[in-house]
Design brief:
The protein has about 375 residues and is α+β, with helices and mostly antiparallel strands. Helices cover about 50% and strands about 15% of the residues. The protein has helices at about 10-35, 40-50, 70-80, 85-100, 105-115, 235-270, 280-310, 310-340, 355-365, 370-380, and strands spanning about 120-125, 140-145, 150-160, 165-175, 180-190, 195-200, 210-220. Strand 4 (about 165-175) and strand 5 form a beta hairpin. Helix 3 (about 70-80) runs parallel beside helix 6, helix 6 runs antiparallel to helix 7 (about 280-310) and helix 7 (about 280-310) packs antiparallel against helix 8. It is globular and about 80 Å long. The mean pLDDT is about 95.
Length: about 375
């Protein structure tokens, strides 16, 4: 179940190897880490040792020389084994990709080897309290002062800041020619003066914590700016498209895990004379969930291939569609899995109830499904905007 037929032999081998690693850890390991308030350090370290964390990063900087196609396979298979690594979305996919494409040579030498071998992590800060999904309303500002940059602002729902060595912050600088604010990216080390964080209490069972960040006169050297001050949205979406693709992989893994548990249960659970899986009222919804997951994976693969081929415009459309499709498929798969197990679906023994909330995260983050429908209606269909 869930074996792709359009992947290369190399990709199938990668998928099988990562699945074997994930199954050695599994959902019990993940649940124990969450219960202890710890982090998935052992799985992260072994994934790094095997070369999975940096599979998308350049070989000259310690990576595997692959792309988002390969990294999405890693995340999906770990998720399907019940032990997803959320920081894969953030550290190598967003931050690693942005630095590899737009970072200075010094930034690449400083950060990419550590991101690839797992010894360093980066968080990504874009969402703000008053901006939500509208990245054009970001109010975190950066001004020049005696050759330095000074940042002020707030961020919310930033994952893993406590375990990250630095956060890639999206701020806005002022264009002297037009007076308009434009987005720029800055590397902010964790212990920089004025850079504060506070945890946000979440109804989620996950090792990675969410934080609100404050930037109060955070002074950074000129070399903290990533890439070109005038690149604007190009650099920003170099990270956001992989983020959407990897969120799709995260959701697909989650949906596959839930569906697998439900199918196993339906095969063996016997209430009358036959296993409950013989009843079409349960079998058909599970089959439908499987179809939806497979279709979502195809769109995710398309998006990843377009991105790795350098088609940023095509990848933008496909990445949004993939994220939408995978989130919907995951929510349906988890819901149907819980329903299939009945009361057992709500027990800690089977570990599905906590996924009801987790699956819905993919509908909301990093961009809501409504904003994706806005994007598709405007960009793909050419319909006028209402805002």
């Amino acid at each position: 179940m869930g074996t792709p037929t359009i992947e290369s032999e190399e990709h199938r081998a990668l998928r099988a190897a990562v699945a074997a690693l994930g199954n050695r850890y599994g959902r019990e390991y993940f649940a124990r880490v969450v219960a202890e308030g710890a982090h998935t350090d052992e799985l992260w370290a072994e994934s790094a040792k095997l070369g999975y964390l940096g599979v998308n990063l350049p070989e000259e900087h310690g990576g595997g020389g692959g792309g988002i196609v390969e990294l999405s396979i890693v995340l999906e298979e770990l998720g399907a084994a019940g032990c997803p690594l959320l920081m894969l979305v953030v550290s190598p996919a967003i931050c690693g990709t942005v630095l590899a494409r737009f970072g200075t040579e010094e930034q690449k030498r400083t950060w990419l080897p550590g991101l690839a071998d797992g010894s360093r992590k980066m968080a990504f800060g874009i969402t703000e309290p008053d901006a939500g999904s509208n990245s054009h309303r970001i109010t975190t500002t950066a001004r020049k002062d005696s050759g330095d940059w000074v940042l002020n602002g707030r961020k919310v729902f930033i994952s893993g800041v406590d375990i990250a060595d630095a956060t890639l912050i999206v701020g806005r600088t002022e264009d002297a020619r037009t007076g308009r604010l434009k987005p720029c990216l800055f590397i902010v080390p964790r212990d920089t003066p004025g850079f504060g964080r506070s945890p946000i209490a979440m109804e989620l069972s996950a090792p990675e914590k969410q934080f609100e960040l404050t930037l109060d006169e955070v002074r950074l050297p000129a070399e903290a700016l990533v890439g070109d001050e005038d690149a604007g949205l190009l650099q920003l979406f170099a990270g956001l498209n992989p983020e959407r693709i990897m969120t799709a992989a995260f959701a697909l893994g989650m949906g596959r895990y839930a569906l697998g548990r439900a199918v196993d249960y339906a095969r063996t659970r016997q209430v009358w004379k036959e296993p409950i899986g013989t009843h079409q009222s349960l079998a058909h919804p599970l089959a439908q969930a499987h179809i939806e997951l497979e279709l979502a994976r195809l769109m995710m693969q398309k998006a990843a291939h377009l991105y790795d081929a350098g088609d940023d415009m095509g990848a933008g459309e496909a990445a949004n569609m993939a994220k939408y499709a995978a989130a919907e498929a995951a929510v349906h798969a988890v819901d149907q899995a819980v329903h299939t197990l009945g009361g057992n679906g709500l027990t800690q023994e089977y570990g599905l109830a906590s996924m009801i909330t987790a699956a819905r995260v993919a509908r909301i983050a990093p961009v809501s499904r409504e904003m994706i429908l806005n994007f598709v209606s405007h960009q793909s269909l050419g319909l006028p905007k209402s805002y």
